Amino acid sequence: MKRLLDTHTHSVASGHAYSTVDENLRWAAEKGMELVALTDHAPAMKDTTSHAYFANLHVLPKELHGVRLLRGIELNILDFEGKVDMDEAVLSRLDLAIASLHMPCIKPGSRVENTRAFLKVMENPYVDIIGHPGDPRYDVDYQEVFRMAKETGTILEVNNASLTPGGFRDGSRENIKKLLLMSIEAGQPVVLSSDAHFYTGIGDFSYAETLLQEVDFPEELILNTDPARFLASLKHKK
Known about the structure:
The chain is of the alpha/beta class. It contains 8 helices and 8 strands. The protein has helices spanning 21-30, 51-55, 88-91, 111-121, 142-152, 172-186, 206-214, 227-233; strands at 5-9, 35-38, 63-64, 67-76, 96-100, 129-130, 155-159, 191-193.
């Protein structure tokens, strides 16, 4: 089935991405996509943008080139208690929030500590998605992460960039596979994301699709086929 949405994309505001919002949405429109989330890196990431950038995202149109634009953020998990780098006043006005572990913002701890960081951040009512949970540099208990995601209604992401051979998250494949198998057993939906840092990457889930085929993942558990269903799954909507 056609993938109609991409939930994790970056613009030049992130500091290490190379396209504008307009370029991103033009490309998405050409690919026939219906929804794209703009999720630039939150302020704790080195060389990214400021608090004011996210507070002012309301000036962006809700639709551009015929594609619905979600005004979002990729939060940095800052400690093993799940603290993030944006206040609730701003988060409450955004459409979507991803929370991720990034090496420049938090160094890997023990398995217990890394797992706790995910569990605690999923308690945040404004965290909709866990970004690239398969990163092998952070050893975690995936059974616990999956349990909490299901309990809190937090969506787990299948991050295409993490599956790129030779990438800096090389080794993610087996961890994501574990989560996919748990999702099949529990009937729990996931979302595919490009994590695009250049416009031509938006809507590219090629490595993720290969893994989905390998585990015979059910189409009905992929949220990218139905924008309305995806939106209804977000904590921001509940």
